[in-house]
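Board notes (copied after class):
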Amino acid sequence: MPESINLEVIPGKGKYTLGINAEDEELIRKAARQLREKYLAYQQTYSDAVVTDLDILAMVAIDIAVSHLRLEDKNDTVPFSDKIQQLDNELKGYLKEQ
């Protein structure tokens, strides 16, 4: 069973203690740092507007989700796998004819 630890993160104005697997600590620290940096950037961008901490966190969540989806699209190998399979089948068919 993986070792569990508590890690405190501060994405906005609140502090949250997360129970995490020890092996995920560095990844979660990086994610929390990225979240905090984006939070501060949005807070600065909208400093003149009336937005709440929750509003800023929602904008950050959307930003990160869009980035994640873009990466998923870039790493989608299904079209390539399908094309390779098609070419493999054509090559096999050609070789059988020879």
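Comment from the instructor: The mean pLDDT is 89. The radius of gyration is 23 Å.
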